[in-house]
Every structure is written in C-alpha cells, then in structure tokens.
Automatic annotation (TrEMBL):
The lineage of its organism: Bacteria, Pseudomonadati, Campylobacterota, Epsilonproteobacteria, Campylobacterales. Belongs to the SIMIBI class G3E GTPase family. ZNG1 subfamily. This is Metal chaperone, involved in Zn homeostasis, GTPase of COG0523 family. It comes from the Bacteria. It catalyses: GTP + H2O = GDP + phosphate + H(+).
Amino acid sequence: MISSFVITGFLGVGKTTMLTNSVKENFGDKKIAIIVNEFGDVGVDSKILKNVHSEVLEISEGCICCQLAEEFEAGVTEIIQKYDPEIIFVETSGASEPFPIFLSLQNMGISVDGVICVIDSKNFSSYKENSTAKYQLGGSNIIVLNKMDLVNETEIKELEAEIAEIKAEYNIRNTMTNEPIFKNYVTHRAEQGLVGKELFEGVYKVEEVVEFAQDSTHLDHTLKDSITQKVAYLKEDINFADVDEILENVPESIYRVKGVVKVKDVPNAIFVNYSFGDASFEELLDYEDKSLLIFIGENVDKEVTALTKKYDILNVPKFSISRG
C-alpha cells in the first residue's frame, strides 16, 4: 500500500521549504514522489523541488476541482506505474483547498496518512480571515507552525487558540452524518521549515508491519519526545466488526494505528491503516503470522492498557523493550 501526505497552506507560508527540508532530512531511505499542484503557468515550486528529488509531477492551475481531477488522477497513476514510490507528497496551490485532493487519493486506493497545513506563525493575522485559508485549516489533521523563531511564547499561545477556533468552525464534515472527517488534529512547531521525522512516523509498508509480528523486540519504541508506539496482539477467534469497533474507539491522543489482522468473516488477512480517525483496509495473501495492531501517539502506554481492559481480544505482552 502506497502512503501519501497532502501539504496545504496559504500563499507564501513556506510549504515548498518545509517539503524540501523534510525530504532531504528524513527520507533518504525511501522512494519518494512529489506532485506539485500549481497555480498559473510558471512552475517555480516544482523547479525547486526537482533539486531535491527528480520525480516531480506538476499539475497546473492550482484548483483540482472538477475538470482537473481527472488530470491529477491520471498523473498519479502514471507516476506510480513508472516509479513505484513508497510515499507520495502532494503540494497544493496556496489558492486551493486540500480536501478534493484527499478524496481523489482515497478514491485511487492510496492511503492518506496526513493532510498537513503549514501556518506562517509570524504573519498569520494578515491572512487568517481569508476563507480559503480557513478551509485549508479545517481540511487538515496535522498543523505545522512554521517560522517559530520569529514569534514569542505569548504569540504562540494566541496563535494556537485562534487555530482551535477556526478548526472547530471549518472542520470538514461528512454530509450524510454531519460527523467531522478528522476527529482530531496534532500541532507541530517548525523553524525555517524543518520538522522532525516524528511528524511522519507510522508510515510503514506492509513488510515492515509484518516484521513487527515476527520480532518481539519491537513491542515498545520511543519515537521522539512524547510520541511513542506500542504493539498489541489480537486473539484468533474474532470478526471484522470486533476490529472495527476498536478503531472506532481509539482515543484522540493516538494518531495512527497500523497492523495486520486475521478475522473469521474475511478469507484473507487484512492490512489495517488508521490515521487521525480515518481507517482503510486492504486484503493480504499468504499471511500466516500473528494478528497485531501498532498504536502510535501520545500517552500510548496508558491508552492501550485502557483499550485492553475494555476489549479482551487485545493483549499486550508482559515484557517490553524500549528504544530511544
């Protein structure tokens, strides 16, 4: 399963800088494809990104809605066929909203591990009333506060409060249920567009998740600061609805869940991919190892323990190995 991230944010907030620095710093061991959804005829951002990574596809005119959706999906299909990337980054135009791209990627069966909205911490007040900027925030589940070296702690707290208000009002909702698409979000701080790899942690290929099932030394792992991960195994005699119920009740402090489970009512094992309240599934052939889920987020030890008490089909081994 290919993973993807959508990078959004208003004009001039530093999206390209963040993407450039992040790819250089964190993804030297991955096959990366970058898609630039630009506005206008001159693809400046794509030229910058090509200095970092050669596989850059440019989609012109910014807005992916309506007529350009087919061009976008055709371009993504082409880049997958030619390059077979592990992770796709899509940088949107500063004048467009991210949600149509999110939907297009999901419709293509591509896992969207995060919609990242980059905020100009210093100049947010100058564009915060723009409706596009508000919907960019509302349609994201990861907020990156950029240019943090230019603001003080008081300004940061005011900024975070303003973001919370906008998120509450402009959060994208399911038109059928009126439930928010992203039930929670996480905020990261960045200076000069540089964010740590913990922002992208949990982007595991199927083979890497299978490795967790085969190697007990992966039971616990400290990723960075307060972000940790914990592995829980599942009993054999379970149905798909049991797994779905667990995912429906994952607390907000757990950002991602990855795993492979075997259930009675599906013939093949299922690769589970949960990210910020949104879950997707893919059948796997010839998987014979244990069923397990990898929980990633904050306060994971406490939260997973609570889940095991609520659901007796989950089991956390008595011993664990931590890694710094």
